[in-house]
Amino acid sequence: MKQIEKTPLAVWAGALSNEICNQIIEEGSLLIEEQATINQDKSIDPSIRDNKIAWFDEGSWVDNLLLSYVFKTNTINDWNFNLNQSEQVQFTKYQKGEFYTWHRDSNIESDIQRKLSVTVQLSDYSDYEGGEFEIKDCWGTRVANMHPNAKTQGSIIVFPSFLLHQVTPVTSGTRYSLVQWYSGPPFV
Fold first, then answer.
1. What integer is the mean pLDDT of 40-53?
2. What Cα–Cα distance (Å) separates residue 71 from each residue in 32, 92, 149?
């Protein structure tokens, strides 16, 4: 756990080109949009999360695009989590007033546990205000310092799914991102 304490996240600044990000936004905007849910029961609670999502098909080119960054991060940071499956890539859209409060992506009571989460900054940061992605340290007491280029269009952030994180309310414009989770057997 010492390595996670030292490096609670990895930022691949500007990893995807603006052209690729714009293509993902274009294709994501054609997907069937739904109200974002919370928890495994797919409940809706607009006091916790208020935004729209859609899903890319499993095995899509977008899905394959993120895989190498997740596995490189897991190895480079010496986390070495046992990962054996991924979930569909979620296309997220936050408009004025929309947000997602502090939460974790993992559920320790599940047989398959989310271990690594990945988020991709698709929008150019000049296209919206607010909508800050924030993550807390391992103890959940302090907001971790984010790499200054994490807001750059095409940046990929990979972090352990058990860390608290949020997206603050968007105050103007639209923020687009991708989210995906990588799972494995329970931690022992």
1. 90
2. 29, 23, 21
